[in-house]
Amino acid sequence: MTASSSAPATGAPATPGTGTPGSPLLTVAVLCLGGLVASLTQTMVIPIQGELGRLLDTSEANASWVVTATLVAGAVAMPISGRLGDLYGKQRILVLSALLLVLGSLVCALSSTLVPMLAGRLLQGFAMGFIPVGIALLREVTPPRVTPTAMAAMSATLGVGGAIGLPLSAWIVEDFSWHALFWVSTGLAAVVALAVVALVPHVRDATPGRFDAVGAAGLALGLVAVLVAVSKGNDWGWGHGRTLGLLVAGLLVLLAWGSYELRVTDPLCDLRVSARRPVLLTNVAAIAIGFGMMAQAIVVPRLLQSPAASGYGLGQTLLETGLWMAPGGLVMMVFSPVSGRLIRVVGARVTLMVGGTVLGLGYLFALFLTDAPWQLMVASCITSAGVGIGYAAMPTLILQSVPLAEAGSAVGVNGLMRSVGTSASAAVMAAILTASTVDVGGYALPTENAFAVCFGVGAAAAFLGVLLAALVPRSGDAAVR
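^ thats the sequence. predicted structure below, dont judge the formating
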């Protein structure tokens, strides 16, 4: 489907198919649960990250791939799953994504060595395609007055799952075994799969066309190379041949992929649509907002867990840290209806600007108030509110500017841009924290100034997102009022 073949469409529910249409609110609840469970798997291994080498009988460097593999697979899956949803029906792809999550979690639960664990984690990452497909489906199965709030809630699950995953996983690991993490995710994923089959309506939203397998392979190869280089650059060294080689190779592959996509009849991603000013600016803003979200998720826990002997650390345990961070996830979900209301009243563009502003203010708060865990909790809640508001506005802006037949693909690309932002943020924050250290009890810890720089960079990224959102054309805001 090319850019010229259809015009943007918004809001109209599709015709019900053979499935039994359920309550729109029940559908929203099921999709949000699925997004929550899928995103939770991204952070669930953090409590055992330092022990994965011993647990899997491998080196610490090899064990780090257990985290990296899921993040990279999730980024690759979003645009591909979105396109599959456009071609074959979104409910079908939601079921497939949920089944991948069940299978991946089960493989991890039964694994005690590296290779099967990586296979399971890759499958869990591929299940992240559930989120953009679910967001795109909401436009078709909810009344127009409910759609902005529903998409806001679904978008918020990207952050909420990660926020609640840390304390939940820490509690499970402390009271049970590390394998229990994956048994719990297997059970939750099975509930999601059954709920999607039984409660999410199957609408006739499949569109004519063919799946661009060459484009999918090219995008996957390019993204994997770039994201692995960015994720591992701090460990390997940014000047290391492996890092530079992967980065250059990935960028060349993506350039070749872009050239191919412009020539093919049914592209995986219609780059002409993606080049439209509202879509392009929203996607670039997504990188900035994703960067800002990940910065606090990395820096605040590190500061909370730094030993009090450093003079600035707060000496919290992993479980305590997770509990201090958990309210941020709840705030993100609470602000979903607020964001939906803002979208209806002032438009998605202004809502995105509000979200970025609140995110930046949270970092400015953290710059000056880090003397107690509750202060960092407040800062985390402010930044989480900003992320919740901003994440909700982005898919609305995207969907206002793309054809209905390409809704899943477009939202998937937006999700990919957020993943690029979070990956870049993780690399930048790690580089800042390791560039300036102080010796405390024989351990090299980041200096207090390094944490301040991280907060400053996070604020700058958030306010850059505000600027980019301000440049998005005003046309289309009326579509959601």
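Confidence is low (pLDDT under 50) at residues 1-21.
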